[in-house]
Specification:
The complex is a heterodimer. In chain A, α9 packs across α10. The longest helix of chain A is centred in the N-terminal third of the chain and has 13 residues. The termini of chain A are far apart. Chain A contains 13 helices and 7 strands. Chain B has a domain of 99 residues. Chain B is 45% helix and 22% strand. In chain B, the strands form 4 sheets. In chain B, strands 8-7-6-11-10-9 form a 6-stranded mixed beta sheet. In chain B, α4 packs antiparallel against α13. The two termini of chain B are 31 Å apart. The chains are: A alpha/beta, B alpha+beta. Chains A and B meet through α1, α2, α3, α5 and α13 of A and α1, α4, α6, α7 and β9 of B.
Chain lengths: 310, 472
C-alpha cells in the first residue's frame, strides 16, 4: 500500500442511522481502517457539508425526498467508487413498504387518525415534501458495489473496505443464510404452517421442516446468520439471493413454497398462498426494488390490500 | 409585516432538520420551530403486518436506539397476549438493554460530545473529531471506545445482533445462553464496571470545565418545564420497566400512570412546520410542556439502586437541585446513567435467576397491547391493536425526541431573542446550535459539536432576504 491515504465520503439518505453505527461496530478494527483511510465527509464524524473529491463513497438509505436525490447525485459526481451500503440503499428497505400506500394515506394515518393526536391537520408549511415513492439508489445514480444487510455485519464491511484499500475485488460469497445455519433439514410429517407464536420451535431442526416460515434459503448472507442460530426464523432483512433476483419466474414465495413442500406434507400452493397473504411481512425489506417489482407475477399492492381487509 | 429567519440545515443530517424563526417588525422572535424534515410513516406501514415481527421491524425505526424499540415492542406483544414472561426472560431483556444503554451513552459522551469536552466549544475544527481526540486524549478516548464496544457486545450476545437485535419475542427470549457465552459476559460486564468507574472522574472534570467556560450559554438554557420518566415501585430509576411519573416545574410529583393509560395523560399536537408532532402532559384539564431523557429521569426519580451511580446522583442533586432545568446538565446526567447501566448489568448477569426457563408460548386473542420503556433519549411508548389472527390493525407510538420538541422551540425562542439583536453572526449560530444539541435529539443533533456546524441563516422581510448568515 502506498503512503497516500484512501479518501472516504459517507452520506445518509432516508434511513434509520444504523448503517453508520455499524461502521463504529468495527470496534477495535476501526483504528486499523483509519490508518489507511482519511474520512473527508461523514455525517456522524466530520463537519464537511459539501461533497469533496473522494476515492470511495458510501451511501446509506434510500431516496425519499428531493434532498436525498440531490445528495446521491452529488456523491456520484465526486466519488470514484460508490457503494450502495445497507438494505435501504440497495433495495429500498422497510420503509419501501411506503409504496403500498399513498403519501396522503400515510399523512392521514399519522396526523389525523392517531388516537393520541388532538390536532386535525397535516403539516405542510416549509417542509420538504416527500417523493411519491421510496427509491433504491441505483435507480437514481450508477452504483459500483452493493453491500446489502440491515445493517451489513462488520465482517463484510471490513472485508469490503480492506479490498478497496488493497485495490482488489472483495471476497463476498453468494451463499444464503442456510450456509451459516446450524439447524438440520429433515423430512417431516408436518401438515400445517405454524406462526412463530404457535408453540416454541425446536432448536436443532430447520424451521421449514417444522412448519415455520423462514426466509433463510432465499436471503443473501450478509449477517453471519444470527437469527436461526438464536431461535428466530430469518426475516429476509439483507434482501434476496442472486437466484431470486435474476430468475424471472422464481421468487421468495415460489422458492420457499418449493422447499417447504419437499420437507413437509404442506402443499406448495398452500405455502405460496400463505406468503402472498402475508406479503407485507415477507417482502418487507425488498418490495421497493424493480428487481422484485418487475417480476411478471408479483402483485404486492393487491396482496397487501387484500391482507388489510378484516 | 413579519420576518422569517431560516437556519437550514441545523444538523449534519442535511435536509432532515432545520430551524425557523418568525419575527415581528421590531425583530423580536415570536415563534421558533425546530423542524424535522423526515417522515417514514411507520404507524401506517405496520398495519397489515404479522404482529410477531414487530420487535424486529420497529427496531428499524432507529439505528441509534434499536434495542429500545425492539424491547418495547416485545413487551407490548406480551401484554396483547396477556402473558407474564418468566423471570429469566425479564432479566435477560433488561441485561440486553443495559448493554445497549452503555453503548448509546458511551457513544454520545465519548464519540459525539467528546470533542466539545476535550477541545472546548471554540476548538480547532480540524482536530475536533474522534481522530483528533485519539491524539489529544489517547487514554480517555480508547477506553471510552472500549466501554462502548463492551456494551454493544453485551447487547449483541443476548440480542443476536447489536444493531437491530432479534431475540426478544412475545413470551420471552428466543434462545438460551451457553456456558461459554455466560462466562464471557460476566467478564465483559466486570470490565465495563471497572472502566466506567475509572473514566467517570476524568469525564466529570471535563464536563465541569465546559460548564464553567460557558456561563452565558448556560444561562439561556434554564427553561422550566414538567418532566416525565420511569420509576420502579420504590421510586428509584428503572430503564426497562415501571410506572411513568410526571413532575411539575416546581418539583412536585403530580401523577404516576402505567403505559396503557398514556392516552389520558399525553396529548400530541401536529405543528405546521415539522413532521414531528409536539407532546404535552394533560393534567387536570391543562396541557403542560415537558421534557424526557436523562435529565428528566434524574429529576423524577428518588434515587438509583447501584452504589457508584447513587453516590454521583447525590452530588448531582446537591449541586443542581430538584428539578434541574438546565438542558446542558443532561450530559452529566448521562454520565450518572452510564455508571448505573454498567453496575446494573453486573447485578443482572450475576443474578441466579438469569439462566432459568426464558420463554412461554403465547396466543393472540384480539385486542390492544401497550408498553413503554425508557429509551436512552426518553420515554418511548408503543401501542398496537392486534386481531385474533395475529395481524396488526392499528399502531401508535410516542417517540422520545418528539416530546422535547416544544421545550426545544421555547429554548430557541429565548436563546434567539437574547442573542439576535446586534449579535455577531458566529455567536448567534453557535448559540442556536448549542441549544438544539443540548436536548440531544437523537442522531439529528447529538452528532454535532457546537461551533462546527455549517449553517446558513436567512433573514427575510416581505419575502426578500435582508440578512444572510453563513458558516462553512
Amino acid at each position: 500500500m502506498s503512503g497516500e491515504k484512501i479518501r472516504l465520503n459517507t452520506e445518509w439518505l432516508c434511513d434509520c442511522g444504523g448503517c453508520h453505527v455499524a461502521l463504529v461496530d468495527l470496534h477495535e478494527k476501526i483504528l486499523n481502517v483509519l490508518e489507511a483511510v482519511e474520512i473527508l465527509k461523514c455525517p456522524v464524524l466530520t463537519d464537511e457539508k459539501g461533497y469533496p473529491e473522494a476515492d470511495i463513497g458510501i451511501l446509506t438509505g434510500s431516496v425519499r425526498t428531493e434532498h436525498d436525490r440531490h445528495a446521491a447525485v452529488e456523491m456520484r459526481k465526486k466519488c470514484r467508487t460508490i457503494i450502495a451500503f445497507g438494505t435501504c440503499a440497495v433495495y429500498g428497505g422497510l420503509h419501501g413498504a411506503g409504496l403500498a400506500h399513498s403519501r396522503e394515506e400515510i399523512m392521514d394515518h399519522v396526523y389525523r387518525h392517531s388516537p393520541s393526536t388532538r390536532t386535525d391537520f397535516i403539516p405542510g408549511n416549509s417542509i420538504t415534501s416527500l417523493e411519491k415513492m421510496v427509491t433504491p439508489i441505483d435507480e437514481v445514480i450508477d452504483v459500483d458495489l452493493y453491500l446489502p444487510g440491515c445493517p451489513p455485519h462488520p465482517h463484510f464491511i471490513f472485508e469490503g473496505l480492506t479490498a478497496l484499500i488493497e485495490n482488489r475485488a472483495p471476497k463476498a460469497s453468494q451463499e444464503s443464510i442456510c450456509a451459516g445455519c446450524r439447524r438440520t433439514m429433515v423430512k417431516t410429517e408436518t401438515s400445517a404452517i405454524k406462526e412463530i407464536t404457535d408453540g416454541v420451535p425446536d432448536n436443532a431442526t430447520c424451521f421449514l421442516s417444522q412448519g415455520y416460515i423462514c426466509q433463510g434459503s432465499v436471503t443473501l448472507d450478509r449477517c453471519l446468520a444470527p437469527c436461526p442460530n438464536h431461535g428466530m426464523p430469518c426475516s429476509g432483512c439483507a434482501g434476496p439471493t442472486m437466484q431470486i433476483l435474476t430468475e424471472p419466474t422464481r421468487d421468495i414465495r415460489t422458492e420457499i413454497g418449493d422447499r417447504m413442500a419437499r420437507l413437509t406434507k404442506i402443499p406448495y400452493a398452500t405455502v405460496k398462498e400463505h406468503l402472498e397473504k402475508s406479503a407485507k411481512t415477507h417482502y418487507a425489506y425488498a418490495m421497493a426494488t424493480k428487481m422484485i417489482g418487475n417480476k411478471p407475477t408479483f402483485l404486492i399492492r393487491k396482496w397487501i390490500a387484500e391482507g388489510e381487509v378484516r | 409585516m413579519s420576518t422569517t429567519i431560516k437556519i437550514d440545515p441545523v444538523t449534519r443530517i442535511e435536509g432532515h432538520a432545520r430551524i425557523l424563526l418568525d419575527c415581528d417588525e421590531n425583530g423580536k422572535i415570536e415563534e421558533a420551530f425546530f423542524c424535522v424534515n423526515e417522515l417514514r410513516g411507520f404507524e401506517r406501514i405496520l398495519v397489515g403486518m404479522q404482529a410477531h415481527t414487530l420487535p424486529q421491524v420497529t427496531a428499524r425505526i432507529c439505528g441509534v436506539c434499536p434495542t429500545a424499540h425492539h424491547l418495547v415492542a416485545a413487551k407490548a406483544l406480551d401484554n396483547a397476549c396477556g402473558v407474564t414472561i418468566p423471570e429469566a426472560a425479564t432479566l435477560l431483556r433488561e441485561y440486553m438493554y443495559m448493554g445497549h444503554v452503555i453503548h448509546s451513552h458511551a457513544l454520545s459522551l465519548f464519540v459525539l460530545a467528546g470533542p466539545d469536552l476535550v477541545f472546548g466549544l471554540q476548538g480547532d475544527p480540524i482536530k475536533q473529531n474522534i481522530v483528533g481526540m485519539v491524539e489529544a486524549e489517547p487514554e480517555l478516548t480508547k477506553k471510552g471506545l472500549r466501554l462502548r464496544s463492551l456494551g454493544q457486545k453485551i447487547n449483541e450476545t443476548i440480542g443476536g445482533r447489536g444493531i437491530h437485535p432479534v431475540t426478544a419475542v412475545a413470551g420471552g427470549i428466543s434462545f438460551s445462553l451457553s456456558d461459554g457465552q455466560f462466562q464471557r459476559l460476566r467478564e465483559l460486564t466486570a470490565e465495563a464496571v471497572i472502566l466506567a468507574k475509572e473514566l467517570s472522574g476524568r469525564l466529570k472534570s471535563l464536563l465541569m470545565r465546559l460548564f464553567d467556560d460557558n456561563p452565558r450559554l448556560l444561562a439561556n438554557l434554564n427553561v422550566p418545564s414538567w418532566y416525565v420518566g420511569t420509576v420502579a415501585t420504590d421510586g428509584k430509576l428503572n430503564l426497562y420497566d415501571g410506572r411513568i411519573r410526571a413532575m411539575d416545574e416546581s418539583g412536585v410529583i403530580k401523577t404516576e400512570f402505567v403505559a396503557d393509560q398514556y392516552i389520558h395523560f399525553l396529548a400530541e399536537r401536529a405543528v405546521s412546520h415539522s413532521y414531528a408532532k409536539e407532546v404535552y402532559v394533560d393534567f387536570e384539564g391543562h396541557e403542560h410542556m415537558y421534557r424526557v431523557g436523562t435529565l428528566a429521569r434524574l429529576n423524577v426519580v428518588d434515587g438509583l439502586t447501584t452504589p457508584l451511580a447513587q453516590a454521583e446522583f447525590e452530588q448531582f442533586r446537591a449541586n443542581f437541585g430538584r428539578p434541574c432545568h438546565n438542558a446542558v446538565i443532561q450530559m452529566y446526567a448521562k454520565l450518572i446513567e452510564l455508571l448505573y447501566a454498567c453496575e446494573r448489568a453486573a447485578q443482572l448477569i450475576n443474578d441466579p435467576g438469569l439462566r432459568g426457563e426464558n420463554r412461554v408460548p403465547v396466543q393472540f386473542k384480539g385486542g390492544r397491547g401497550v408498553a413503554h420503556i425508557e429509551a436512552p433519549r426518553g420515554t418511548l411508548i408503543h401501542d398496537y391493536e392486534i386481531d385474533e389472527k395475529g395481524i396488526v390493525r392499528a399502531a401508535n407510538m410516542i417517540i422520545a425526541t418528539q416530546q422535547n420538541t416544544a421545550a426545544i422551540n421555547k429554548s430557541l425562542k429565548e436563546g434567539a431573542n437574547a442573542l439576535l439583536q446586534g449579535a455577531e453572526d458566529e455567536k448567534m449560530l453557535n448559540a442556536l446550535e448549542f441549544v438544539v444539541r443540548c436536548y440531544d435529539p437523537c442522531l439529528a443533533c447529538s452528532t454535532h459539536a457546537i461551533g462546527r456546524m455549517a449553517l446558513a441563516v436567512e433573514v427575510r422581510r416581505d419575502g426578500r432576504i435582508i440578512r444572510e448568515l453563513r458558516r462553512n
